[in-house]
Amino acid sequence: MELQDFTKNAGDFAEVGRELYGDELLLNNIIANKYIVQQEIGRGKFGIVYKGEHVKHRTRVAIKMESNKSPYNTIKYEATILNYLYHNGCRAIPSVLWYGIHKDYKCLTMNYYDQTIEQYLKSVMTKCASSPIYYLKQVIKLVVNMVAILGQIHNHQIIHRDIKPENFMIANGELHLIDFGIASSVSNLEEINTEPNRDTIIGSPKYISYFIHQGYEPMYRDDLISVGYCFLYFVMGSLPWSNIVISENNTQQVYQEIHILHEKNQLRKKQKGWANIENIFNKLMKKYVIDNTPKYANIDEHPEALLSGNNKKINDNAQVFANIFEYFTLCYSLQLDEKPFYEELCEVLQKNL
Predict the structure, then answer these.
(1) Residues 70, 62: contact at Cβ < 8 Å?
(2) What positions does the domain Protein kinase occupy (predicted)?
(3) H helices then E strands: how many in the chain?
(4) Could you tell me the strand order of the sheet in which 168-171 lies?
């Protein structure tokens, strides 16, 4: 099965998005004579997501709706991408149960997942309040699964372009990736423009990669770098660039916030730069390395120094951060038109743990 080039303009959705919701009350509506709309659980630029239920079988479903007034068929694109991936063996994604029109809305009915990744990690923290390494190892397992899922969809030339914690869900102990509304397809790596040619960002500003801020086309490496930022969020509780504050005297901002030259994006780009990534890991090493002996005193230069020379006897906390730092190093060094080695990345993340 071939995926048509229907996603080539999908990035425009993230750049222009307008909320086009009618005033009609959709709760308790019956969709396709099968699914009852029960509760709103999410709202974005292009639509609303509801929790629903199969009328006969009483199984829970997720129902995404988009106004017919919207010029952007994000739900149609998402349904096509999900069907394409599912047909090609990808199972860590929602399956399309029904797609069609209900009144003034395009509707997509999918699997419902009852646990967010943050809810899962909170339960882990409750169990291991006195054992930080247990929590860190659970986070590593999640990150490995995230990379493995991306390997599956990337293998079928699909880039998600909106990797963030909110788009990973857990059901029956298995991790799933959701929300393919701004995903895109890659037809031929040899035809990719390897020079910066975009003036707007695509995706969630906190989690898009450093290279997106530079104006490069989103590519495989960017999904993987976003996974790295997710790790930082899981461990730190927030990202260093989460709450960007621009100068008060800059009241006449020339650029829209989605423009790469907007002051917020310029600040995010700087904070996501390699020098600052190194600085973040140095701080994490100092915070989490328990065995704070003199042999760990010189970790300011490079976190991976903990693994060299006389520093073989390191604690598990340090190993976790050394592995993640190596993961970042590999992902940041990927070329735009380079296909990552996902098994190698997963091995790096789990090394010596």
Answers:
(1) no
(2) 35-353
(3) 10, 11
(4) 115-116, 168-171, 174-177
